[in-house]
Amino acid sequence: MDELEKKTAELNQALELLSQSYDDTLEAFGSALDLKDMKTASLPSASLRTPSPLRRPFLFLRSI
């Protein structure tokens, strides 16, 4: 195996690990949101209805 093939294999392995980490992170965020929703479902609150600027980037997770 020449150097280019070796580096390509290492890069592919790193990409696979990164992809798995991304999937795991999305699953964890989704689970955290589900848990939060269950705990706060009976609590009417404007803060739950109106997304804060910090929560907006993660709102797409609700559709997963």
Number of domains: 1
In the predicted model, the low-confidence regions spanning at least 5 consecutive residues are none
Terminal residue distance: 42 Å
Q: How many β-strand runs?
A: 0
Q: How big is the Rg? A: 19 Å
Multimeric status of the protein: single chain
State the helix count. Answer: 2
General shape:
rod-shaped
Largest sheet: none
Residue-averaged pLDDT: 76
SSE run: HH
Kindly describe this structure.
It is built from two helices and no strands. It has helices at 3-40, 46-49. The radius of gyration is 19 Å and the shape is rod-shaped. It has one domain (3-63). It has 64 residues and is mainly alpha-helical.
